[in-house]
């Protein structure tokens, strides 16, 4: 009888015990596990201004990142801006530190223009932090003030932004990083803290197809011409002037 009562008591304890809480997935670990050669992730980034419910897209960048064992090793996509009268569209490819721009006005037989490393000072992104660089992702998450349903929210001061090492770190920014059930980022939205006018200017990036197979290589050498070798073409503009459009978008949105 005593044995039967003991078994019943143990069973009752097990049945009434609160279910164990699943551990929250670590986004840093989840992203690190994606760093496999031949795999990648798709991205779509938009610089948006919003005023009284009306939204306007100034810059859009979309494409694919290719991974290696240590992170991003290549990328390919399209950069579109709506600031200027001509509304520039650039098709780009990066392999290591080499940047290629595709164009229709290149010399006959050439499809890609190779930009030297010194000109490639500004990455083709507007985000103040690169979450595919694990130290920056870890640093960003350290400033989280709330987590709900896989969404991390917080703020980064100007000093903290510089410490994170973002290439385009502003005066400071609020962020919301959404992740899926495995901890992989799906959506990053940042907004400068200094932007407190009636017009909101924010950068919105979405990530999808984590782990899909992708191969991005240098274009065939016979299709490439160096930027310094081009004299009279629309690509005679410096890359810095083109990428300055991104910064102008933020300023224009505040006016």
TrEMBL record:
Keyword Signal listed: yes
Keyword Signal part of the UniProt annotation: yes
UniProt keyword terms in alphabetical order: Signal
Signal peptide start-end: 1-22
Protein name as annotated: Lipoprotein
